[in-house]
Amino acid sequence: MEKSELLRFILKHRSMLLSYTLSLAGNHHLAEDIFQEVCVVLLEKEKEINFTTTEEFTAYIRRVARLKSFEVLRSRGKQAVISPEAAEALGSAFNELGGAEAWDERKEALAECIKRLPVASRKVLRLRYEDEIDCDGIGRALGRSRAAVHMMLSRIRLALAECIKTFISAPGGDM
User: Fold this and answer.
1) Where a domain ends, among 52, 76, 96?
2) Residues 66-80, buried b or exposed e (16+ Cβ, 10 A)?
């Protein structure tokens, strides 16, 4: 595979790879470090990479990401958030959901659905997933109990899941 083609493909699927490594590492900064390591591996193997379909290639880069994730985590004395078996199942689920094209559609739907959430719900999501604050910390910031924050996040996730489902099933992605 040509280096320029490989780079375009990696960049096109960056968010998918970062999400996958985040599911293994549990930390945005560490996931970004792993993503960079994966890019180095892929560029070193550019001559060996020869796939005919996007699905084959995304499966391959997820496999590389999974192996590199566990390697990096081990070298830093950290443990993966999920088991190697669960990581493999996650990759299989990705294919069953429609692969890279469906990923892009779901990502677009998620962004749209987040915009539609009330400001308070978006704030809770930002605190939890962007600022990486745990439920106790969010509870302190909002004057709520840990259990109340868990319930808020659960309801927000359910609302997002329902919104995404509606968005994807609507003709043209409009709700």
Assistant:
1) 96
2) bebbbebbeeeeeeb
